[in-house]
What we know:
Elements: E1 3-7, H1 12-23, E2 29-34, H2 39-43, E3 47-50, H3 56-62, E4 68-71, H4 77-94, E5 98-100, H5 117-128, E6 132-133, E7 135-137, E8 140-141, H6 155-159, H7 165-170, E9 180-181, E10 186-188, E11 196-200, H8 202-212, E12 221-223, E13 227-230, H9 231-242, E14 247-249, H10 253-259, H11 266-275, H12 286-289, H13 298-306
Parallel strand pairs: 1-2, 1-4, 2-3, 4-5, 5-6, 7-12, 8-11, 10-14
Antiparallel strand pairs: 9-10, 11-13
Amino acid sequence: MVTVALAGASGGLGLTVLRHFAANRGDHNIVLLSRFPQTYWTAQGIDIRTVDYTSRASVVQALKGVHTVLSLIGGSAEALRDSQLALIAAAKEAGVQRFAPSEFAGSGGGYEIDLYAGKGEVWDAVKASGMEHTRFVCGLFMSVFATGTPKAVTSTGEAEGAKTGEEEALAGLRPWNFVVNMSAGTADLPGDGSAKVMFTDMRDVARFTVAALDLESWPEELYMYGSVMTWSEAVTIVERVQGRKFLVKENSADELKAGCEDAGKRFYNQVRLSLTNGWDVGEHSLNSMFPGIKPVTVESFVEKWWDGVELGEPRWEDDKGFM
Ligand SMILES: NC(=O)c1ccc[n+]([C@@H]2O[C@H](COP(=O)([O-])OP(=O)(O)OC[C@H]3O[C@@H](n4cnc5c(N)ncnc54)[C@H](OP(=O)(O)O)[C@@H]3O)[C@@H](O)[C@H]2O)c1
């Protein structure tokens, strides 16, 4: 039994992890580090410790007695760099033994993407800290196939307070037509769509990450996935389920590099550029370590949220970039 502190778990992926952990905490004690009081979670018996990441003393105090820190911080490049660097320094001072930074992307971290550049500094700092560490690698969240679903919320979403099926399927991710526009019927591929990508449902990211807390030792990287497939294969699945052919555009690396010059679409194009090299699975997978966890596949996710939905003729839309 250890005390595990979750940082940045009041929203997004972190909230999904916290919900799963709170319901499956085993012998572990859970501490929630947040910049704000979280009265709902206090009422659920979670130990809330409010922190000011600009005050070392505040964070060190909040980490008293903590064995493992799971960082789920997101929001901005500054949050990913500055708050996490502060958290690592404080964790070391407080005697924390294990630290997993907020990664949850492709192998190698994708530090060439501007928004994730600070994650690279954080990774170097955690490696230099002497704390045991790992990088959780899950590829893309499967929620990329959720945006626009008109399906109704299920009991799972209702229990989480979701008002719509889309909100449930997004599981905390902001709606965004990334590569595929599921309603419009288009695929704006990284490269020719032939590189392999891991796709993982965010609730499975939560299950695997919480399971990894019980490992006796952590390798440098811990992979997890629901499906490993190319974008082209994923689009074929969507076409079968939706019963229509998608309009598909391939984008060469040079075209994506040029697209990075458009500030409003820089992140979109930088991530797609990274995906042209594949976000494939690596050596140590939590899927192999925890065969009892049966993650959602792309096929079952797309069937759940798009089977039987009536859709019109595919048409290109001007998708908004995501900053
Ligand atoms: N692979 C994928 O497809 C994918 C997609 C999206 C995100 N991600 C990754 O998942 C991780 C979490 O991202 P997310 O989108 O879930 O994050 P998010 O919802 O934007 O933020 C999560 C939490 O971060 C904390 N936070 C925000 N600004 C902060 C700041 N300035 N300093 C300290 N904490 C701050 C907040 O917690 P408090 O207010 O409680 O402090 C917030 O609830 C990131 O590493 C992100 O890159 C991966």
